[in-house]
Amino acid sequence: MSISRDDVLRWMELFAAAVAEHRAELVALDTAIGDGDHGTNMDRGMRKALERLGASEQADAGAALKTVAMALISSVGGAAGPLYGTLFLQMGSALAGNPEIELADYAQAWRKGLEGVQARGKAQPGDKTMVDALIPGVEALERASDLSDGLRAAAQAAETGMKATIPLVARKGRASYLGERSRDHQDPGATSTYYLFEAAAAALAG
Amino acid sequence: MSISRDDVLRWMELFAAAVAEHRAELVALDTAIGDGDHGTNMDRGMRKALERLGASEQADAGAALKTVAMALISSVGGAAGPLYGTLFLQMGSALAGNPEIELADYAQAWRKGLEGVQARGKAQPGDKTMVDALIPGVEALERASDLSDGLRAAAQAAETGMKATIPLVARKGRASYLGERSRDHQDPGATSTYYLFEAAAAALAG
Amino acid sequence: MKKLINTPDGVVQDELHGFQAAHGDRVRVSFDPAMIVRIDAPVKGKVGIISGGGSGHEPMHGGFVGPGMLDAACPGEVFTSPTPDQMAEATKAVDGGAGVIHVVKNYTGDVMNFDMAAELGKGEGIEVETILTNDDVAVEDSLYTAGRRGVGVTVLVEKICGGAAEDRRSLQQVAELGRRVNANGRSMGMALTPCITPASGNPSFELADDEVEIGIGIHGEPGRFREKVGPASQVAERLMTPILEDLPFSSGDRVLAFVNGMGGTPLIELYVVYAEVAKIAQQHGLRIERNLIGSYITSLEMQGCSITLLKLDEEMTRYWDAPVNTPGLRWKA
Amino acid sequence: MKKLINTPDGVVQDELHGFQAAHGDRVRVSFDPAMIVRIDAPVKGKVGIISGGGSGHEPMHGGFVGPGMLDAACPGEVFTSPTPDQMAEATKAVDGGAGVIHVVKNYTGDVMNFDMAAELGKGEGIEVETILTNDDVAVEDSLYTAGRRGVGVTVLVEKICGGAAEDRRSLQQVAELGRRVNANGRSMGMALTPCITPASGNPSFELADDEVEIGIGIHGEPGRFREKVGPASQVAERLMTPILEDLPFSSGDRVLAFVNGMGGTPLIELYVVYAEVAKIAQQHGLRIERNLIGSYITSLEMQGCSITLLKLDEEMTRYWDAPVNTPGLRWKA
Ligand SMILES: Nc1ncnc2c1ncn2[C@@H]1O[C@H](COP(=O)(O)OP(=O)(O)O)[C@@H](O)[C@H]1O
Ligand SMILES: Nc1ncnc2c1ncn2[C@@H]1O[C@H](COP(=O)(O)OP(=O)(O)O)[C@@H](O)[C@H]1O
Ligand SMILES: [Mg+2]
Ligand SMILES: [Mg+2]
Ligand SMILES: [Mg+2]
Ligand SMILES: [Mg+2]
After folding, report:
1. Which of D129, D155, D184 delimits the end of a domain?
2. Substitution site in B19, B114, B129, B177 for ligand 2 pocket (most atoms within 8 Å of beta carbon)
3. Nearest CB partner across the interface for D58, out of C7, C18, C268
4. C220 part of contact set with chain B, CB < 8 Å
5. Domain count, chain D
6. Which atom in ligand 1 lies closest to the alpha carbon of residue A173?
7. Does residue C57 carry a catalytic annotation?
8. Which of C89, C106, C111, C200 to mutate to test the interface with B (most CBs of B within 10 A)?
9. Which of A71, B122, C92, D66 would bridge A52 by S-S if both were Cys, CB 3.0 to 4.6 A apart?
10. What is the CATH number of the domain that holds B77?
11. Within this chain, do residues C139 and C192 fall inside the same structural domain, yes or no?
């Protein structure tokens, strides 16, 4: 079993749908410890991404992910724009020209994406950011031996990571200004990252 | 029975006390159809008036009323400052040098005051202003044959005039901007004028 | 009520202390009677211009004292017109021998207090001319009202007359020009929220979460009517239509468009409104030659806006463009 | 939510249309990517200065585009930093051959997006220097935060660097000066009310009728703590004390004092606060040599204020005083 370009397109459609559906939730989470725009930002970006994906033929999965990356970078802004942009850009580069993406390739692409996000944002695990959902998700994929099971495990691990941000005090991003007052709130970026894994599981788990 | 300088001083003290007591009420009435300052204005003015009355010997009742007039003119502002200022100035002029003020003198002084207010503000009866309490009060005094009874009757007539402003549509002052929306509210200036007659009855009715 | 004040009764005094601390190099602030006077007043041979009114409309009028605009301003208590002795003192303070203009907004209290002051001024041999502003089309100008309120056009009168006085035009010329500005200017305002005077502590009116008040003045009074909140395009239409019909403005007219914030409305929203005003003006063939966007004549922290259109002539435009150097309005100086 | 807007998603576009209609004679507004550029850009031989940030802080930054201040501004969505392509385009548009300064407020999003833009700019052979502002003493500058936020000092950096660039100082000189301004400036803010972003429609936090939020930024985030509302003197004390201790400021220092409104606070209250700031400054022996009072870096319709103190040196003072001609800040021009 492998991942095709069309699988990736379906994944992005599902992610865009999830972000649109949860837009208000993401805004509410970001209102509590940030500036209340994460849902709007991601929704605007993913709508732009689908538009771009539809506007021209995507050579392969890697090219499609790069298109998404560029759409996000030029339309999201804020912290999420460069971070998600970098994630997809690194994944896209890792997968470029690969027509038959196997589990190992895919897991490695996520690893590259994670590294890109950390290089850009300097967040460590436990800083209460999207990284806290990203790391367990990627690690679950890396441990997996089956694509389908691996993606389900990754989504579950990301969800656990997302929930684990609740008791944390933020050390990166806007929420860090709040110090102790950032505790007891779920990180919006970790939440959207969980939706990204969920969408991957739904689209690619066959 | 006649009115002395000290009677007038007591009258002004009682009026100042009434205005202070009803400050919030006058503000609320003025908030509904004006700009919400009538209570504050009159209270500031009457405190200044008492201060000035206390600061130097008042030759007679007329002089005391002129002192009140000047204090109001220089401290109240708004519509009420010039109107009440003119009222007391005209009364003071009419009574100047008169040590034994009889009912007829007093009623005539009120008439002069009323004329001054109408000359300054151009309000006619029914325009929903202080004039609507002033006219019936003055007329009751003019009809009276006894000072004490006359003052009680005047206060009662002013009260009736004040209440009669409720159904009126304002044609002068700030409330007139509201047109039909000024209906069903009692005029603040007519209300403070009623308190002025009440204070007179309490202070001078012997 | 939450405000950045010390005590409700001390607001105006405290504000004047702040004004003095900030602008003591260019104005003289006096406290009894309260007035803000150009530091170099009286300017010999120049017509003096004073205005005054209740506080709570900042920057008007105190913020407009300086070269090219007012020579003095008399602040009353919040929403309460100042007293005659303030205006009489200010008149004396700015009389440079060429006479003094009183810019008076048409409110019963302002008119009566300025009248008394002018009587005093004349008594002392100072020639005084009054310019009465009454540009608010929300109020019917009839026997059944105190006449139209003076609102946005007041700012324009003060600027344009200030320019003319600086140019050493005569008392009659400046007064005539100011009256022409008033006669060619129309305004209307609306509120999204009421305001709260420090002394009352209560909202000036109650509005539901989806209602706006149309046809308000600048003292927190309720307006002519209320309606459900609509888009900015509808708000602009509501205000522009009566303005355009009233003068009337007609195709080809050159105008100054002034979108004013009521004190609590952020600039971003005023620009959104301005975009609509510009559209409507274009539809009517008006040429907006000058504009002013910002909170210049306010109603404490009220949210909302007013629109003023002034039909320009060459002289008005020239003196609008002339240098002005005040805390509230400044250019070319 | 009641606002003078058409649709929540269209606010920034609509505002830019208004800005273009109002100031099209002095700026060029482009919509894709969104930017406001000085009409005569690029100015040959002059260091170009751009800034950018989320919308909702007006007049910053778009209102500061013009001679003596910014060459271009890139507006993001409300409270959302703009995207790299905006800054890259603006960088190209203002490069007059002497290099380009990016004035960046220290927020994770702004920093990352500007970083990506600078990488692009460099790729095209344009020399770019970044000035990062981080003056908000409400935030601990430690490993446990994203560092201090850039707030009020940003306005001062843009004005002073703008003056220096107009004077044809080199890229390095302007950058060094801007960094010195930032290093010598400290700010802190407070809110009486939250704000509501058009997209969310909900208050950014809930405050009781007698509570204030101390240590807020400019994005409606909750602050460091809340307390019962006190008089303006107490508010000034709360903000001034951490500012004074942080640099630290000491007796004899010459300072610029900037009392800034958050968008919904009327000018009268800012002057009340300024009076208290002046008192406290005097008690500490500081000499306020320049001041700025008004709403220049805002948070939509939030009520509240921030205070910025800048320790002045001769060069800063000179370029602060230099002519500036923008919609939001204008003098001597
Ligand atoms: N330095 C960082 N590294 C990784 N993720 C970050 C960092 N800073 C912020 N984030 C993520 O970005 C999210 C906020 O995104 P968004 O609200 O769109 O941007 P902004 O904070 O600029 O408004 C946070 O919830 C967090 O997960
Ligand atoms: N032209 C007028 N003639 C007589 N009384 C008037 C006139 N205009 C206003 N008033 C009275 O003044 C009162 C308002 O006084 P006040 O609130 O102190 O002044 P302002 O309206 O300037 O705020 C009104 O209630 C009315 O009784
Ligand atoms: Mg956010
Ligand atoms: Mg009143
Ligand atoms: Mg009043
Ligand atoms: Mg944001």
Report:
1. D184
2. B129
3. C268
4. yes
5. 2
6. 8
7. yes
8. C200
9. A71
10. 1.25.40.340
11. no
Residues D179, D213, single domain; the answer is: no
Q: CB–CB of C116 and B82 under 8 A?
A: yes
Confidence band (pLDDT; 50, 70, 90) for B86?
Answer: very high
Residue whose CA lies nearest to ligand 1 atom number 22: A78
D81 touches chain A (CB under 8 A): yes
User: Measured between beta carbons, which residues in chain A are less than 8 angstroms from residue D33?
Assistant: 74
Domain range for A34? 5-204
Same-domain status, C128 and C144: yes
* Whether C79 and C130 share a structural domain: yes
Catalytic residues of D: 57, 219
- Tell me the sheet residues that pair with C330: C325
Rounded Cα gap, residues D112 and D135, in angstroms: 19
The token pair at C47 is 């017509």
- Which ligand is located closest to the Cα atom of residue B31? 4
Question: Whole-angstrom Cα distance, residue D114 to residue B81?
Answer: 60
Q: Residue B78: which of C109, C197, C204 has the nearest Cβ?
A: C109
| CA of residue D185 to ligand 6 center, whole Å | 24
Give the domain extent around D239: 185-312
Q: What is the mean pLDDT of residues D233-256?
A: 97
Same domain, D80 and D126: yes
Query: Ligand 3 centroid to C231 CA: how many Å?
Result: 26
**Residues B145-180, buried b or exposed e (16+ Cβ, 10 A)?**
eebeebbbbbbbbbbebbbbbeebbbbbbbbbbbbe
State whether D17 and D161 are in the same domain. Answer: yes
* Tally of domains within chain B: 1
**Same-domain check for residues D180 and D219:** no
Burial zone of A180 (CB within 10 Å; 0-12 exposed, 13-18 middle, 19+ buried): exposed
Report yes or no on D333 lying in a domain.
Answer: no
What's the whole-model pTM score? 0.97
Query: How many CB pairs lie under 8 A apart between chains B and C?
Result: 120
Best A25, A37, A124 residue to mutate vs chain D (most D CBs within 10 Å): A37
Q: What is the pLDDT of residues C171-194, one digit of tens each?
A: 999 999 999 999 999 999 999 999
Give 10-residue mean pLDDT values along chain C (333 residues).
Answer: 96 98 98 97 98 98 98 97 97 97 97 92 89 95 88 98 98 98 98 95 93 95 91 98 97 98 98 98 98 98 98 98 98 97
Both D145 and D236 in one domain: the answer is: no
Q: What is the spatial distance between Cα C135 and Cα C141, in angstroms, rounded to a whole number?
A: 10
Degrees (nearest 5) of the Cα angle A102, A108, A110? 105
Question: With bands split at pLDDT 50, 70 and 90, how would you rate the model's confidence at B206?
Answer: low
Centre of ligand 5 to C-alpha C51, Å, is: 16
Phi, psi for residue B104 in degrees, rounded to 5: -65, -45
Entry field: residues in chain D: 333
Mean pLDDT of the region D290-306 = 98
Q: Considering only alpha carbons, which residue of chain D is nearest residue C235?
A: D4
- C322 in a domain, yes or no? no
Which ipTM value was assigned to this complex? 0.96
Instruction: Give me the mean pLDDT over the D306-311 stretch.
Output: 98
Q: Does D146 touch chain A (CB under 8 A)?
A: yes
Residue D7: inside a domain = no
CATH number at residue C131: 3.40.50.10440
Cis ω before D222 (30° cut-off from 0)? no
Pairing of strands D72-78, D128-133: unpaired
User: Dmax over Cα atoms in chain A, in whole Å?
Assistant: 48
